[in-house]
Amino acid sequence: MPSPIPFNIVLVEPEIPPNTGNIARLCAATGSVLHLVGRLGFSMDDRYLKRAGLDYWESVILRQWPDLAALRAAAPGGRFFYLSTRAARSYLQAGFRAGDYLVFGKETKGLPQELIAAHPDTAITIPMPADAVRSLNLSTSVGIVLYEALRQNGRLV
After folding, report:
1. Residue 137 pLDDT
2. Which of 49, 54, 94, 146 shows a CA-CA span of 20 to 30 A to 61?
3. What CATH number has the domain bearing residue 34?
4. The pLDDT of residue 81 is above 90
């Protein structure tokens, strides 16, 4: 029987309200849980955050955590995938399962290198064949990976 929660989207110290609002809307559309971790670069009352999420906020399953360790302690059996431009393995090589945690870092710095190094088997990246930019927009990245995870689990029929 499939997990009632398709996936968990984890944003560590997000900084840009419209990105978080767009991701909240994506979570509402897919039934995924949005976890906000650490210090936010904005207030949850920010008008840009609310505007990006439009009137979907009541459909968002939102959890806030003081740090990633607290979230991991609350999900002892959870599988965590860490997204980073510094990871070697493509997200297309990951075998996602319903309920997995997809962890994204802050817009300006990403996830700490120590975290990526500590989890080489679950650190993944989105390939950028043109090498024209150093990273993709956070909400774009979440959408790319989440929809691949949904596809792998037959959730897009």
Report:
1. 95
2. 94
3. 3.40.1280.10
4. yes
**Number of structural domains, the chain?**
1
pLDDT at 1 over 50: no
* Residue 3, domain member (yes or no): no
pLDDT of 79 > 90? The answer is yes
Residue 49 lies in a domain: yes
Taking 80 as the threshold, does the pLDDT of residue 51 lie above it? no
pTM of the full structure: 0.93
46: its two tokens = 């920010």
In which domain, by residue range, is 50 found?
Answer: 8-152
Judge whether 123 lies within some domain: yes
